[in-house]
Amino acid sequence: MPAHQFIPYQNPTYEGEALRQRAEEFCHFMDRRRSLRMFSDKPVPKQVIQHIIMTASSAPSGAHKQPWTFCAISSPEMKAKIREAAEQEEYVNYHGRMSDSWLDDLKLFGTDEHKPFLEIAPWLIVVCKRAYEEEAGEKKNNYYVTESVGIATGFLLTAIHHAGLVALTHTPSPMNFLTKVLDRPVNERPFLLIPVGYPAADAEVPDIQRKPPEDVIVYYE
User: The CATH number of the domain where 193 resides is what?
Assistant: First the structure.
């Protein structure tokens, strides 16, 4: 089997103060990212969403299989269907499916089964993971699918934040209803439902803090 062709890697590198400053500035920039449930209905151009999704699709993946599909929804009718189905699942979650300790942990965020943001946000992005591919009627494996799609979702959230927009990683588990509403093929599984848009003028977020470095980093020097 012939070897794959390689091309030179091209990207600027930095050293010294420039390296430190870029890392610090980006850390502070990303630390301002928050999950929002209060969206404006202000339109976001389709091209912006495409650039954001293609940034996500630049993520690394197992054997470069890129095992993801991003469903971008702006149709009011489709968003209404998704909200109705999601709220049905969430009602069950909040009224028996979730444990008492889980519900207690959620009190900080003031959430319940009502999800109006699913219709207010101008776009919903449903991230799907592709368990396998079908070529000429034959199944072809994808590798490290969940890990790959998780990394791509991180890229997606970063791109949304970089564009000056906001998002919410919504997980109305189980999410099988999205497969039906969106008429997706059997090799795809919904992974996350992410509303995307501008923050509402009166948007608020919980007053919470991130863990400090000593709680999340272990150095071996």
Answer: 3.40.109.10
